Amino acid sequence: MLLLAGSSHAASPAYTFRPVLASFAVTHLAAPRSAPDRLYVVGQGGTIRLAVKGKLLPKPFLSIDRLVLSRGGEQGLLSVAFHPRFATNRLFYVDYTGRDGNDYVVQYRATKDGTRTVPGSARQLFFARDPGPEHNGGQLAFGPDGKLWVALGDGECCDDPQNRAQNMGEPFGKIWRIDVQTRDAEIAYLGLRNPWRFSFDRANSDLYIGDVGAGLWEEVDVVPRAQLGELLNFGWDAYEGRAVKEPKEPNPAGRLVYPAYAYDHGAGRCSITGGFVYRGSAVPAARGRYFFGDYCTGTIWSLRWANGEATDVRKEAPTIKGLSTFGEDARGELYAASVNTGRVYRLAR
Predict the structure, then answer these.
(1) With DSSP H G I counted as helix, E B as strand and the rest as coil, what are the percentages for the chain, rounded to 5?
(2) What Cα–Cα distance (Å) separates residue 7 from each residue in 2, 17, 177, 222?
(3) Tens of pLDDT, residues 257-314
(4) Is 66's pLDDT higher than 70?
(5) Does the model's pTM come out above 0.90?
(6) Domains of the chain, earliest start first
């Protein structure tokens, strides 16, 4: 079902996003399930800082500035994911643009207290020779299958001129699954333009993808857990949202699916930042709502997904300019951050 943001309800007076931390150009926020009161803050330039009970530790958790290409656009250190058994094996994973302009996923090991990275522990898991500086994707997250899921955009500006997103022989415009033990990788989904942020609902493992559009539509795609193992095609660039983009047939290798929700580029909106279904306890009125926003305007919305439909779409408060990411902590509390100001916000009453 396709819904437009213009039809959304007013923001709930029961909650908002409040600033809790000031840091650097934030591209991602995450925490292992075993570490309450901790939040790992990813900086675009190549540094991860650890915040404990809302305060940044003075020394970085990881610093790979010398390896990372970051020119303030879509490149840089893009995300971090913690192994499901991080408490015992201390393994974590980062996605970044290398100095050569290509895409890397690398495993590291943290110190026993989880505050630093063990020197010399890097192990490369995934590499893609990127054709351009745009549409890098960059999200990492462990799925319910225990594999590391990796998002790659179509790799080029504009309308995927090389048809990479529909080509199963190309790594771009896809979401991948990696077995972190064997380093075996497989394509999970195709037909994506720039799935900058995706997340699994911690309550039921449904997958939510915020796929950045081109000139007309931004979209949220939802994959129920029962369909996670099926090869799906999200349509780009034969389709943008539900609209025909180019007069061609999508690759039949994957079943074609349409967005759960899409919004147009009215009022300066231009680039979706996907978020999370809220499963925390601090804001009961927000439970079960999927939060997402727009990078250009800083507008945040939420919706509910039920019985195969997106419903009760709501514009939230406040506006966060340069909205680059959302994140969850160990308890499922929800955060948002700006790459422009470095401020981190928390959903609160």
Answers:
(1) 5, 40, 55
(2) 11, 22, 36, 20
(3) 999 999 999 999 999 999 999 999 999 999 999 999 999 999 999 999 998 999 999 9
(4) yes
(5) yes
(6) 21-259+321-348 (2.120.10.30)
